[in-house]
Every structure is written in C-alpha cells, then in structure tokens.
Amino acid sequence: MRQAHFLNSSALVGLVGLLLLTAAAPQPALRPQADDPNPPDQVVKLIFIHHSSGENWLADENGGLGLALGQNNYFVSDTNYGWGPDSIGDRTDIPDWLEWFRGAETERYLSALYRESGQHSAYTRTLIDPGGENEIVMFKSCFPNSNLEGNPDDPPASEASYSVGGAKYVYNQLLQNFITHPDKLFIVITAPPVSDPGYADNARAFNNWLVHDWLSENDYPLANVAVFDFYNVLTGLDNHHRLANGQIEHVFAQGRDTTAYPGEDDHPSADGNRKATQEFVPLLNVYYHRWKAGTFGQPTPATAPAAQAQPETPSLPLAESGAGMIDDFEAAQTFGGALGWEPSWDAATSTTIACAPDSGETHAGSSALRIDFEVAANSWATCALFFDTPQDWSQAAGLMFFARVDQPHAAFDVDLYAGDPESPETYVRTIEQAAEGAGRWVPVAVKWADLQRATWEDDTGQAFGSPDRVVGLAFGVSAPESAPVTATLWIDDLGLLSSEAAASAPPEPPLSTQEGSGSPARPFLPCAGALPLPLAVLGIVSLRRRRNRA
User: Fold this and answer.
1) In the list 301, 401, 478, 492, which could disulfide-bond 250, CB 3.0-4.6 Å?
2) Rounded CA gap, 414 and 384, in Å?
3) Euclidean distance between CA atoms 206 and 196, whole angstroms
4) Which residues of the chain have pLDDT under 50?
5) 122 with 252, same domain?
6) Considering its fold, how many domains does the chain have in total?
7) Are residues 162 and 274 in the same domain?
8) Contact criterion met (CB below 8 Å) for 433 and 497
9) Can you give the pLDDT at residue 354?
C-alpha cells in the first residue's frame, strides 16, 4: 500500500521539511504569537563569514559574541582570511558576495561552507558539535564597505560596484540564491561605520534600505533571510537594533552617522562590540523562530520609516520565458495545448475527487484550483494536467506555486510525468504542510533534483532527469490502509522556477520511503495529442476508467 500522509505524516518531517515554509503575505493577522527571544530548544549549527572586525566581535575578551551564541544553543564556526576553496574567505567585500552566492563556483564554495565545523578565530566553544550541516549563515563586510559612492536614494544599478546602487544590485541578486535554500537561514550583518563622515549619508541610506525595504521591494516570499544593522548600533550611544518590549526596534538619532565606538582605527571598540552582542543575540533567536515557524520575511521594526505600499501578494521567481507561468487559474487553460485539469481516482473504492478553478479561496487574482479529496482507506486520487506535446522545461530549475491546505500536518504529492507520452515515467515529491500553515497560502518550491521515480514503477528512487520532455503534472493524495482521508487543497500561481535562481544550489538529500510502504500503481493518463480534442478527452476518460478497474 502506498504510504499515506494526511493523517500520519510525522515521519516525513525530516524528508520534506525543507521544501514547505509557512510564509504568507505580511498581514498582521498571520502573526498571532509574539516574537520569541528564547534560544532554540536544540543545538543549531551556525557559521559566520567575516574578517578582522568579525573576529574581534567573536572574541571572548572583546565582543564576546562566540560565547553568547554558545550560551544560546548555537554551535559556532567561522571563516576568515585564507579559508575555503580558492581561498574564497579572503574576499568579503560587498561585490564579492556574488562570487560566494551567484558565481560559477558557488556550489563548491557553499558545499564547503555548509560542512565547515572549524574555528578560524579565537573564541570559546562550550557546545559539542551536533553533526550535520550549518543551518544558519551569517555574513558581513568590513568597515571600508561603508564608503559607498553615489547618492542616498540611488536605485539598484545594473552591476556590482562600491556604490549605493551597486550594493543594492548585489543584495538583490543574492535573493535568487537564498530562495533556493529555504532550509538555511541567512543573516546579513551590515558593515561597521567609519569615522570619516564623507559617505555617511550613503551608508545610512543603504543600511536602512536593507533593514526596511530590501525584502519587500523584491516581494521575497520566504522567512529565511534577515538583517542585523551592526552599522546602526555602532553609530550612536542611543542607536539600537534590538528587541524591546516584545517588538523589533530600529532607532537612531539624526546627525550622527560616524562611529561612536572607535578603536585605534575604524575597527569597533570592545564596548561597541559588546553592545552589538547584547542586541543581536535576542534578535537572532527571534529570526530563528520566525524562520522555523515560516513567518513572512523580515521582522518589521516598531519604529521603521513609513513603509511603501506592499503588493497584494509575494511574486514568484519564475523562469524568464513566455512559459514561466504554467497556470494562474484565471482563464481557460491553453498552455502547451493542455486539455485542462482532470480528476483521477481509484474507481474500485468509494474514493471521490473534484478539481476545478474556484473563486472561494485565492492567493492572487479571482480564482485558484480547488481539489476536494475524499479518499477511501488504502486508496488514492489525483488532479492532473497533461500537454498535447512534450514540454521542454530544461531552462527552468523546477516548479514553484502557492498551496493552501485546510488541516494541520497535511501532505500531498507533486507528480511529474515525463519521457515517452505513450509510456511516461512518474516522478514524485511529497510536500508536508506544517501545523502553523493550515488554512494559509504558503509558497512551495520543487526543484528537478527533488523529484524521484515513483515507488510503484521500475527504477524506484531514480532522480528526475528529463525536464526537456515533460508530458504532464498532478497533485495527489493517498490514504493508509487503516483510515480514509478527507481534505481540501488549493493551488495557485503555478509556474516554472527560474533556473538562474537555483543554479548554485547543492543537491538536496534524496527522499526515502518507509519500508513496506508499497502501493498499487497510480495510473498515468496519456494525452492523445494527434486526436481531435473531443475524441482525445473521451479517450483519456475511457483509458483512466479501464486502468482504475484493473
């Protein structure tokens, strides 16, 4: 019997948790719980990319950050000069982040970064390495990067440079990588200030943009990116970025944008570093819990400047082609000659399914695909879309869409059909809905590497490798032998994930199955594209019924 998930999905948490983050549009109603400044319940691995000012901040006798993080259940590692493949650790200026996160060797650099467990600075570690990869990546440029040219209100430029516009360009580009790693939490630490006031207005404006506008301007839909304004904390005795009275506070006095905590040069003093430690660690805990809960984007400071009007919903990083959007469910389906969404079910049981665009619940626009499942015990059902001719999606990295499920701990399958239209192969990825996301729209990204050959076909577990011959896709549910499943799933804004966004992503761990979880084959519905449309529809229905009775 194929493994069911809706009512018994706890075993899947470690397998599919990195795919589904319970993020949503920034509406206060979606944040009923107060921010949590408490340390994680378990040891979490963290790595910090830095140079000398970061080294001082970590040091026990200076900023004490390493000790403080350990006391909050973070196992800390770091990089410094000379670290990593090609000594990438030497390069931490703002334009260098493109080499780390968006370059030709990004996969190699990040693979080493995620596995790093060593110390490259002097600080005390009291925790035992829990094993596994680093989950949190902190990265910071040094104080010369506060000397940004240009003007405070410059928009993002078209390339990287040591300017306001060039820096905005860099950080906008980084989001294309971060969105492919929802299983990592990325913390931007702004560059420390310098005593020379020549570029202070630019530095202040850029760092305010990072804190208040960066994620919202890009409609960033996930909760795995946050900012700590190290610059602001160090520019005035009364300047803060902290949690105060249960709210994120980002405040600064006008007229003081140079370092208020100078050392012998522009490296921050121990006093400034200790202040930053006191303010940062509780914020990191907040960011961590928001990431785990899937709350949308950057926590909004209580004293933030007036926010620009937010778009109604986050956008998707779609592949840049005319076929980027597969179906927004706003009109009759015409993509790739598709025949429309068709239900399929185990007709030998009492299972029923209905799937069609519906206006009752939408992520964006006026309608979304609604799928009502009533799946009998030891049975299955799918809602599928097939194409008249095979689709070449090799320029994309995978699928991305928004999903809404009406109950906690629910799960569903994304099925992709590829290869020979007469005898296609089925590849599957199971998506679990976290408890906090029940009844909410959440973004889901499924990269091609996430999909594996279905357990009911030959070559089970084989990775998907035919994005140039996709013949259909489906959303499905199966039920255990012991109980039926009744659930409603909504899908909206189904599109192709940008290949550029995931080009540097390391392979994700393969999806495994529990022993003894075999199941009857779920039939594939071939699309007879050479037939006239009415006959093709009749042929599909007839074939489905014959296979369901088999």
Assistant:
1) 301
2) 10
3) 17
4) 1-32, 295-300, 302-315, 320-323, 334-338, 435-436, 500-550
5) yes
6) 2
7) yes
8) no
9) 94
Instruction: Give domain status of residue 459, yes or no.
Output: yes
Q: Is 380 in the same domain as 419?
A: yes
Residues 152-208: pLDDT tens digits? 999 999 999 999 999 999 999 999 999 989 999 999 999 999 999 999 999 999 999
Asked whether residue 166 falls in the same domain as residue 47, the answer is yes
Query: Which residue type does 459 have?
Result: D
Reported as half-sphere exposure (CB side, CA atoms, 13 A), residue 90 has a value of: 4
CATH of the domain at 388: 2.60.120.430
Same domain flag for 194 and 227: yes
| Nearest in space to 491 (alpha carbons), one of 323, 363, 352 | 363
Give the separation between CA 119 and CA 113, rounded to whole angstroms: 12
pTM: 0.56
Q: How far apart are CA 269 and CA 250, in angstroms?
A: 21
Same domain, 238 and 320: no
Phi, psi of 115 (to 5 degrees): -90, -15
CA–CA gap between residue 498 and residue 217 (Å, rounded): 18
d(CA 49, CA 32): 34
Q: Does residue 456 lie in a domain region?
A: yes
Domain boundary, last residue among 229, 259, 293: 293
List alpha helices for 13-127, DSSP H. 13-16, 52-58, 65-71, 97-102, 106-115
Is residue 31 included in any domain, yes or no? no
Annotate 423-445 with three-state secondary structure: CCEEEEEEEECCHHHCCCCEEEE
Give the Cα separation of 222 and 443 in Å (integer).
8
In a domain, 334, yes or no: yes
| CA distances, 254 to each of 199, 201, 232, 533 (Å) | 15, 11, 11, 68
Full DSSP string of 522-540: PPP----TTS-HHHHHHHH
How far is 253 from 479, CA to CA, in rounded Å?
60
pLDDT in tens, 349-397: 999 999 999 888 888 778 899 999 999 998 999 999 998 889 999 888 8
Q: Which of 293, 308, 335 is the last residue of a domain?
A: 293
Helix (H) or strand (E) holding 161: none
Tell the burial category of 535 from Cβ atoms under 10 Å away from its Cβ (0-12, 13-18, 19+). exposed
Residue 241, SS3 per DSSP: strand
In this structure, the answer to whether residues 112 and 261 fall within a common structural domain is yes
Angle between helices 200-212 and 164-178 (to 10 degrees): 20
| Residue 356 near residue 392 (C-beta atoms within 8 A) | no
Share of the chain above pLDDT 90, in %: 54
Report pLDDT for 331.
65
Look up tokens 């761990």; give the residue. Answer: 509
Please give the C-alpha separations between residue 473 and each of 67, 192, 545, in angstroms, as whole numbers.
50, 49, 19
Is the separation of the CB atoms in 400 and 495 below 8 Å? yes
Q: Are residues 251 and 321 in the same domain?
A: no
How high is the pLDDT of residue 11? 28
Domain that holds residue 228: 36-293
Q: Two tokens at 130? A: 């829990």
Q: What is the CATH number of the domain that holds 84?
A: 3.40.50
